[in-house]
Amino acid sequence: MSSQSDVCTGITECLRNVAEEARELYLDKQVPVLSAPVSPLTFYRQYVAPNKPVVVEGAIRHWSALQQWDESYFRKKIGDVKVSVTVTPNGYADAVTDGKFVMPDERKMSMSEFLDKLERPDDHRVFYIQKQNSNLTEEFSSIISDVDTHIDWGTEAFGQPPDAVNFWMGDGRAVTSMHRDHYENLYCVVRGWKKFILIPPTELAHVPYELYQSAYYREKDKGGFEIVDDEATGKVPWVAIDPLSPDLDRYPQYRHTRPLEVTVHAGQTLYLPSLWFHHVSQSHDCIAVNFWYDMQYDIKYNYYKFLESVSKVVSAEKQ
Ligand SMILES: O=C(O)CCC(=O)C(=O)O
């Protein structure tokens, strides 16, 4: 009869094989770039069904935002509008810091005040518009006609309209730490560039995805920030490893990952499939709009949730 530890070793081996076989059988070594959008059926067959990222040129060519969105236009059209802005001491909002999952300080300010912060960055505070509650439709409704409110070939392929349309604009120091979402994501860069580091969900056994006490930054009256526990939210699953400088002594299994890097430039759209781990950095003043299509009722999501629970049982058993 096999012992529990033999079973765990066997499962670890299987999880490692999933990662290797996916790489050998169907994953691309680099994110491909299409020179124009393809039909919804082709998009579905070649990218959505196999859960593979792709960059598409020209999908947002007709958006007037590509020509119009700059500081003077924003000041004129929405300068007085109050928008939600996050503030951190280091650019890392929603990231593991000092062993906690720390969320940013969040505040409302007029768009003009926010633009002032970007024009004259301060050494101790990083400002980023990154509220992911469909802020484009909620807070930027006066400029919504400059973009489309969905991507037609994506909506048709996913079989539903987007659940959220988000506007992102910020400081070049703002970084989104490694995490993953249950959304199919069409991420359109309007100005500047965004750099994505991507790891497929088939490699989840190698990515440390753990529970952390949630907390948030609070700016102190005399300057500086403190980290305050958020008891109401409790523990949150997140990835502590920084792919720009991975701590391999602490997370040795991470060396088995094969991250893909892709820079998405103005006018390009990245299809970031659900469940891929991603880390995002950006040029200063970069502007983007993304569309999230919720996929948590999808069979893939449930399959990967199952893989995840198996891998958690194995790592708990090893400790
Ligand atoms: O642009 C960013 O900073 C993060 C984007 C992201 O994480 C997402 O769209 O899921």
Topology (elements, then pairings):
Blueprint lengths: L3 H22 L7 E2 L5 H9 L5 E4 L7 H4 L2 H8 L3 E7 L3 E2 L1 E3 L2 E4 L1 E6 H9 L6 E4 L5 H5 L12 H7 L5 E7 L4 E5 L3 E9 L1 E7 L9 E11 L5 E5 L5 E5 L20 E6 L2 E5 L4 E6 L3 E9 L4 H20 L1
Parallel strand pairs: 1-2, 4-10, 6-13
Antiparallel strand pairs: 2-17, 3-7, 3-8, 5-6, 8-9, 9-19, 10-18, 11-17, 11-19, 12-16, 12-18, 13-14, 13-15
Helix pairs in contact: 1-8, 2-7
Subcellular location: Cytoplasm; Nucleus
Protein name: Bifunctional peptidase and (3S)-lysyl hydroxylase JMJD7
InterPro entries: Cupin_8, JmjC_dom, RmlC-like_jellyroll
Q: What can you see in these coordinates?
A:
The protein has helices at 4-25, 40-48, 65-68, 71-78, 111-119, 135-139, 152-158, 299-318; strands spanning 33-34, 54-57, 82-88, 92-93, 95-97, 100-103, 105-110, 126-129, 164-170, 175-179, 183-191, 193-199, 209-219, 225-229, 235-239, 260-265, 268-272, 277-282, 286-294. The chain is α+β, with helices and mostly antiparallel strands and 319 residues long. It has a single domain (4-317), classed as Sandwich (Jelly Rolls), CATH 2.60.120. Helix 1 (4-25) crosses helix 8 and helix 2 packs across helix 7 (152-158). The longest helix is centred in the first third of the chain and has 22 residues, at 4-25. The two termini are 23 Å apart. Residues 130, 168, 176, 181, 185, 187, 194, 278, 280, 288, 290 line the site of 2-oxoglutaric acid.
